[in-house]
Amino acid sequence: MNLFIGIDIGGTKSAVVLASEENENIKIVERTQFATLSWRECIAKFFDIIEELLAKHNVTIDNICGIGISCGGPLDSKRGIIMSPPNLIGWDNVEIVKIFKEKFGVPTFIQNDANACALAEWKFGAGKGTQNMVFMTFGTGLGAGLVLNGKLYAGTNGNAGEVGHIRLEKFGAVGYGKRGSFEGFCSGSGIAQAARVKAMELLQMGKKCGYCKSMSELSEITAKSVAISAEAGDVDAIEIYRESGEYLGKGVSILIDILNPEKVVIGSIYERSENLLAEAMNNVIKREALEPSAEVCKVVPAVLGNSIGDYAAVSVAIEGYIGNL
């Protein structure tokens, strides 16, 4: 049995996880969460929690095989530096891997959260047993992690998998700083944008909108509120998700043609609303993707749910320890 520590750094919450791994199975021994602070305060908190967890479970730092850090990008995974993520104000060029190594003397590794989640779903979730897999976040934004030939592929400087930046149309919702981008059509923020435009069209013409009763409610529209309305049978909400599903199909078709994966695993919104997205997505894949590649690829929802952040950070530690990063 091997022991690992996972560090999950989020824009609002962060966590430390102590986990054991044996025979390719992982067990979360204990998890401690706290509100994300400045980077100096956060690192001090990480250190304190790690020492508390080790003492509580009668483990010494010498028993830890590796430390894995999952954090929103941009970051330099090769040099172990967090480089000013937009949701972590003040975290500018933080040499976090070096800091952890100097403190604990344990091999430490870092990956952006999309890559880390890809590792988690590949090792312990919906992609287990595959050699070539794409994981897509489909949350507030859209990013991807690529596992190719049984190993995470991060690219020349760690920026592989930024599929949200692909432009699918000249016009459309804005995502990743680009109008008509994959993220603009297939993300929580993108779905909300499309829903607001549709609501304005209906309300200005004196028609009813099932998920928005008045102009004053436009700012309250979210992907979740539209999904709830769609599940209740609202035709306009259903159409918004159908359109997002079509663009999801376009984007996934590109990935299938280029990468020829066995599985595309999609998290968050797709995981919760597969029934609203899958039919339109699959119709487009059937039409657009290269048939021999599409036939060997399954598009499935992620399965780790709310635990994916814990598994992600620990997966980074495990893959680094066995030399796969």
Structural description of this entry:
- By secondary structure, the chain is an alpha/beta fold.
- It is globular.
- The strands form four sheets. Strands 3-2-1-4-7 form a five-stranded mixed β-sheet, sandwiched between helices. A five-stranded mixed β-sheet has the order 10-9-8-13-14, with helices on both faces. The chain has a two-stranded antiparallel ribbon with strand order 5-6.
- The longest helix has 25 residues.
Largest sheet: 5 strands, mixed
Give helix % range: 40-55%
> Strands of the largest sheet, in order across it?
3-2-1-4-7
Oligomer: single chain
Unreliable stretches covering 5 or more consecutive residues:
none
Structural Rg: 21 Å
Approximate strand percentage: 15-25%
- What number is the mean pLDDT? 95
| Annotation, overall tally of beta strands | 14
The helix-strand sequence is EEEHEEEHEHEEEEEHHHHEHHEH
The dominant shape is globular
How far apart lie the N and C ends? 21 Å
